[in-house]
Amino acid sequence: MNREFYIGEDGLNYCATCKEPVEVLLPQKIQTYLNMKTHPRQCACIRERNAREEQERKEREHKQTVESNTSVCFEERYMREWNFEKDNGKNPDMKFAKYYVEHWKELKRLGHGLILWGGVGSGKSYMAACIANALLEQEERVLMTNFATIINGMFSATDKIDYVNAICSFDLLIIDDLGVESHSEYRMEGLFNVIDRRVRSGKPMIITTNLTMKEMDETQDLNEARIYDRIRAVCQPVQVKGESQRRASRSQMMEKFRGFFNVERKEGSLDDRD
Questions:
Q1: What local confidence, expressed as pLDDT, does residue 101 receive?
Q2: Where in the chain is the domain with CATH 3.40.50.300?
Q3: CA within 20 to 30 Å of 54's CA: 28, 83, 122, 269, which one?
Q4: What is the CATH number of domain 75-248?
Q5: Whole-model pTM?
């Protein structure tokens, strides 16, 4: 920044731009002790520039943090685009997801989570991803994964305890599509270890599932029962009846795809041969 200065009536240097002094007169005793009459000060120009640079630095660091956490959170890149701003408004239950984000600090402190349950294509995963992306913007560490990924990771991990602890270290753990995988005893034991460790850590989790609460409560499988019991103890069930965003996106894409070929055929660039 190139600035010009002038001498004020008090004999001090002033910034020609903001008209503020760029130095202050020291008390007589301090002048004698330091052997100097004035001391530099920041004028409005410098303060504003420093504030702007500090804000830009914070924004860069925030962006880097969010991008780093987001890359870890999602296995599927398209889920990074699932957020409240892009919601089509056709899922009335989205209000519960927004409520969860709005009250996150308290719910996090209490370790309270959600069970988002409903039929295939009801929008459960989209709701969970919206919550994840909103919290990622708050620089929270979120992991959205599924049962199969957890078990595969545990199977290949050198230290299984460290692996479970790493999963449970996130501020929010989201397990998508619980209950659709095969239920071998080994796999169920692995899932229980993660769920149990998560509950004991006092950190919240969100579960999405096609299972109904009745199916969870009335299961005769002891391995399933103890998993569902741990989940129900800390997660509030929310039935989701919305429209699948994934299905809607596919429909829009196919419409554009068909439209493209219809236009090409009309223009004669494609023939109608079999």
A1: 97
A2: 75-248
A3: 83
A4: 3.40.50.300
A5: 0.78
